[in-house]
Amino acid sequence: MALLTPASPLAAQDASSLKKEMIGQWELATTERSKTCVVTLKSDTTSQGFKLELEPNCPKALPFTKDITAWNIKGLDIVRLQDAAGQPVIDFTEVESGIFEGLRSGEGVYILQNLAAARSLAKSMDQMIGDWSMVRGNGRPICGLTLTNTEASGDNFQVFLKPKCDPAVAAFAPTEWRLDRGQMILTSKSGESWQFEADDNAQWRRVPDTADPLIMLRGQ
């Protein structure tokens, strides 16, 4: 009998709220955003769910999208992009506000993100490209770095150290960087990583903070 019990009002309200939040334009992309597709989720109903529109280039960029004909909310928090039979092509769950992750077996993880936020992130990435200085809290420069938009592994990009770096930085020897949930992350060949959080647009401070902080400055 428990299986026949109607969903609680709270559960229905959660699903209804999520549906309202999803109406609009979204970017569907690989994790490193090398392949993207704009999806417009609509409130109009179909026999299997709700209507959507895919940008014309979507099937070329992401071949699996050719099977997507509608979208729906499943359970409390699953956003489903589905085929004409109502079967899931990919299911997404929210990992942080406005960002959803979905897994396709044998392919990997895809991101569904509010289009305006995704384009803002792309702009942020562009603003990061170029020369940086790593300095101590007293302002003493200890290393120069160049962040590039050349793809490395996964969702990382290449970073190059300039000559005459402090021994601690030279030993770390970062080779890749990325932006991840508001942090700048530098990663070495061995997999060690340093995280920096923005104080402002031109200054990023290593976290966790220390008595002798490490700061990244633009173009010094």
- Total count of strands: 16
* Overall shape: elongated
Oligomeric description of these chains: single chain
Low-confidence stretches: 1-11
Average pLDDT works out at 86
- Secondary-structure element pattern, one letter each: HEEEHEEEEEHEEEHEEEEE
How widely separated are the two ends?
A: 69 Å
User: What Rg, in angstroms, do the CA atoms define?
Assistant: 22 Å
Judged by helices, strands and strand pairing, the structural class is alpha+beta
Strand order of the largest sheet: 3-2-1-8-7-6-5-4
Tally of DSSP helical segments: 4
Estimated share of beta-strand residues: over 45%
The largest sheet, given as strand count, sense and whether it forms a barrel, is:
8 strands, antiparallel
The level of helicity is 10-25%
Topology (elements, then pairings):
Elements: H1 9-22, E1 24-30, E2 36-45, E3 50-54, H2 58-61, E4 70-74, E5 78-82, E6 88-96, E7 99-104, E8 108-114, H3 115-128, E9 130-136, E10 141-151, E11 157-161, H4 167-172, E12 174-180, E13 183-188, E14 193-200, E15 203-207, E16 214-218
Antiparallel strand pairs: 1-2, 1-8, 2-3, 4-5, 5-6, 6-7, 7-8, 9-10, 9-16, 10-11, 11-12, 12-13, 13-14, 14-15, 15-16
Structure report:
By secondary structure, the protein is an alpha+beta fold. The chain is built from 4 helices and 16 strands. The strands form 2 sheets. The chain has an 8-stranded antiparallel sheet. A hairpin with a 3-residue loop joins strand 7 (about 100-105) and strand 8 (about 110-115). It is elongated, with a radius of gyration of 22 Å. The protein starts with 8 loop residues before the first helix and ends with a strand. About 20% of the residues are buried. Residues about 1-10 have low confidence and may be disordered.
